[in-house]
Amino acid sequence: MLIPEKQSENKIIVTVDEKWKGKVLKQLLKEELNISSRLLTKLKKDKTIKVNNSFARYHTLLKSGDVIEIALIEPTDQFEPENIPIDIVYEDIDLLVINKQPGIVVHPTKSHPNGTIANGLSNYILKNNMKWRIRFVNRLDMDTSGLLIIAKNAFAHHIISEQMKNNLVTKKYKTIVDGVIENDNGTILEPIFRPNDDSIKRIVDKRGQESITKYYVLERLHNATVLEIELLTGRTHQIRVHMDFIGHPITGDTLYNERVSNYINRQALHAWYLKLYQPRFKNTVEITASMPKDMSILRKTLKNAQN
């Protein structure tokens, strides 16, 4: 149905097949392409949907062979371009996935108005003469490294966000925690709660949101354990809160771990694996990012301490 060679970040082109013959345009847009109601409203207002090169209304009856063209008009990006290195590990017409370095904020805030991933991405878009708006699908804490998903249009942002909401995106992390965990694997089912609006720290509390974290032991070191973590929900600080709750806080985590690490100056947490479905073509996409240098050094140091 899609015409692959004619797609772009800002344009979706579809050929109507027998399945949609005699049905209305809006039904195809919602059910086949999964376009959100919000985006449908915007497309209607902007008059950016054509059938056979003519503006089409949502009640238009479709014929087999009709060519639908959807222009995704994007506003100018709002971030100041800065020459910040961006490590791209995957890119297509809808998505960009980068391997975020530790120590950098994803999105400008009052305390970090510039020097962010968003500023670096604006520079990348400008240098490559691209025209798409930055939409972060997931977020990583400043001192967490790893895979960060950016949607290039509202269509892709909605589809991937829905995939996450319905647990269709597999997210795996690697971390090093204090203490030796005896069980080879486990599942933590504990609600996470924010005590008040001013609190950065989260806690396990029955008033909180359902939170599910799976862990698998990869390696046992000197008074530490290397884990693979799989998130089944996506709460703020979820891994950090849950590991602290079971008595194995993340090494180097200054917010949840009272013990200061001499070998790493941030929480040893890295988002290393993603599996999702490409929003437009629906093929499976798997992406990995190897463990960063500081965590590799920490692992080696704690491993050598065993001997």
Instruction: Note the beta-strand portion.
Output: 25-35%
Q: If you average the pLDDT, what whole number results?
A: 93
* Domain module tally: 2
The percent range for helix content is: 10-25%
Low-confidence stretches: none
Largest sheet: 10 strands, mixed
Structural class: alpha+beta
| CATH class designation of the largest domain | Alpha Beta
CATH fold title of the largest domain: Pseudouridine synthase
| Known CATH architecture of the largest domain | 2-Layer Sandwich
User: N- to C-terminal separation?
Assistant: 61 Å
* CATH evolutionary superfamily of the largest domain: Pseudouridine synthase
Secondary-structure element order, as H and E? EHHEEEEEHEEHEEEEEEHEEH
Provide structural commentary.
The chain is elongated, with a radius of gyration of 22 Å. The longest helix is centred in the middle third of the chain and has 12 residues, at 154-165. With 307 residues, the chain is an alpha+beta fold. The protein contains 6 helices and 16 strands. A hairpin with a 3-residue loop joins β5 (88-91) and β6 (95-100). The chain has helices spanning 25-31, 37-46, 117-127, 154-165, 238-245, 293-304, and strands at residues 11-15, 49-51, 54-55, 67-71, 88-91, 95-100, 135-136, 145-151, 170-178, 185-189, 192-193, 203-204, 212-221, 224-231, 269-277, 284-288. Strands 5, 6, 7, 8, 9, 10, 13, 14, 15 and 16 form a 10-stranded mixed beta sheet that branches. Strands 1-4-2-3 form a 4-stranded antiparallel beta sheet, with no helix packed on it. The relative contact order is 0.13. The chain has 2 domains: 4-71, Roll (Structural Genomics Hypothetical 15.5 Kd Protein In mrcA-pckA Intergenic Region, Chain A); 88-304, Pseudouridine synthase (2-Layer Sandwich).
